[in-house]
């Protein structure tokens, strides 16, 4: 299989930590260029590549087959449209777009152009999520009745970035909401109702920095949430079922390693330490037992391997655009719920 000539748009944390390391170690890809509108970091750190200031320039001068868009959220749909119309395969960093209408248009355009369009919902390959999925498949807690899934941080001082600007697509809900929503939809499918409380907790904040989103199913409730003011050690996952419970603290180890500059080809990549495994408690009215539940290793490279197979061999898209569209539909429903202050019934996706 000839390597896929690849262009990355953007040179921030997402590009440097979540895309470039995997493109560099995966022989299915040939990284050819970077689009960095401002600054010279990419030129200084990766002098062997082609460098551009705009996507338009890169599409005119480069030979990329695949464009990975890791730019601020408001550029996702316009840049993806531009690349698809030039016959390129496209990966978009989450969120897919700013609106359902934008996402639907991209799905249609990719179909018309017969190009692979995927969205980087990499948290499907987190160790903790893969472990939770396995635990559910094995029915370790019986029938699930409640899942609390949170992605909290303690950042009381605001550090300026485009994510803190008061505009559509900024804020914590667009930043972390897509991860949590996508994971819930992967586990349980489309909910019957949603209710959201999206808010700004830091008084200096100009956009949302916290949210709680409830997804209601016939016999299950999923509570998704995030805040920038959680200094306590709250669980990442809390699952309750008819036969027991599962609680997991801490985050998948891959992000920290990638930010430190570790390459994802290291032995044991994505595996959690035994002391970081979650706790499974099972039993009945008379007695319970508690034990660590071994973690399943995470590996974001599964996305890139699947993407290469989809492009070169017609294999399944690791994150089909219609699945990312469902995430956008939940996001819009959540904002409606917030505005109307009530639970909303959902239409079938």
The CATH architecture name of the largest domain reads 2-Layer Sandwich
Oligomer category: single chain
End-to-end Cα distance, whole Å, is 36 Å
Number of strands: 15
Quick one: CATH superfamily of the largest domain? Dihydrodipicolinate Reductase, domain 2
What portion of residues is helical? 25-40%
Instruction: Work out the helix count.
Output: 10
User: Which fold does the CATH topology of the largest domain refer to?
Assistant: Dihydrodipicolinate Reductase, domain 2
Largest sheet, described in full? 9 strands, mixed
Silhouette:
globular
Structural commentary:
This protein is an alpha/beta fold. 33% of the residues lie in helices and 23% in strands. It has 10 helices and 15 strands. A 9-stranded mixed sheet has the order 14-13-12-11-7-10-9-8-15. Strands 3-2-1-4-5-6 form a 6-stranded parallel sheet, sandwiched between helices. Helix 4 (76-85) packs parallel to helix 5, helix 5 packs antiparallel against helix 10 and helix 7 crosses helix 10. The longest helix is centred in the C-terminal third of the chain and has 20 residues, at 321-340. The model has no long low-confidence stretch (mean pLDDT 96).
How are the SSEs placed, and which strands pair?
Layout: E1 4-9, H1 13-25, E2 29-35, H2 41-45, E3 50-52, H3 55-61, E4 66-69, H4 76-85, E5 89-93, H5 100-113, E6 117-120, H6 127-137, E7 144-150, H7 172-188, E8 193-199, E9 210-217, E10 220-226, E11 237-241, E12 244-248, H8 254-259, E13 278-283, E14 288-293, H9 301-313, H10 321-340, E15 344-345
């Amino acid at each position: 299989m000839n390597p896929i000539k690849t262009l990355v748009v953007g040179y921030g944390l997402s590009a440097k930590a979540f895309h470039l390391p995997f493109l560099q170690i995966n022989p299915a890809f040939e990284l050819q260029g970077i689009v960095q509108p401002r600054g010279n970091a990419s030129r200084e750190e990766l002098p062997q590549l082609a460098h551009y200031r705009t996507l338009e320039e890169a599409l005119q001068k480069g030979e990329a087959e695949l464009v990975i868009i890791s730019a601020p959220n408001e550029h996702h749909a316009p840049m993806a449209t531009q690349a698809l119309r030039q016959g390129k395969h496209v990966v978009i960093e989450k969120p897919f777009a700013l609106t359902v209408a934008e996402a639907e248009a991209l799905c249609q355009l990719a179909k018309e152009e017969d190009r692979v369009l995927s969205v980087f919902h990499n948290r499907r390959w987190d160790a903790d999520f893969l472990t939770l999925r396995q635990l559910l498949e094995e029915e370790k807690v019986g029938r699930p009745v409640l899942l609390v899934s949170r992605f909290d941080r303690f950042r009381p001082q605001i550090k300026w970035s485009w994510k803190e600007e008061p505009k559509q697509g900024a804020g914590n809900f667009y930043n972390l909401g897509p991860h949590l929503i996508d994971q819930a939809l992967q586990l349980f499918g489309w909910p019957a109702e949603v209710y959201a409380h999206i808010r700004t907790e830091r008084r200096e904040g100009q956009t949302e920095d916290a949210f709680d989103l409830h997804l209601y199913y016939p016999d299950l409730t999923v509570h998704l949430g995030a805040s920038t003011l959680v200094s306590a050690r709250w669980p990442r996952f809390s699952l309750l079922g008819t036969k027991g419970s599962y609680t997991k603290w801490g985050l998948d180890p891959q992000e920290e390693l990638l930010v430190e500059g570790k390459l994802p080809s290291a032995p044991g990549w994505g595996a959690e330490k035994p002391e970081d495994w979650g706790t499974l408690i099972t039993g009945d009215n008379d007695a319970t037992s508690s034990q660590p539940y071994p973690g399943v290793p995470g590996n974001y490279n599964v996305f890139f391997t699947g993407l290469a197979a989809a492009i070169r061999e017609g294999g399944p898209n690791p994150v089909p655009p219609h699945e990312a569209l469902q995430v956008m539909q939940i996001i819009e429903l959540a904002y409606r719920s917030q505005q109307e202050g009530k639970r909303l019934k959902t239409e079938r996706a």
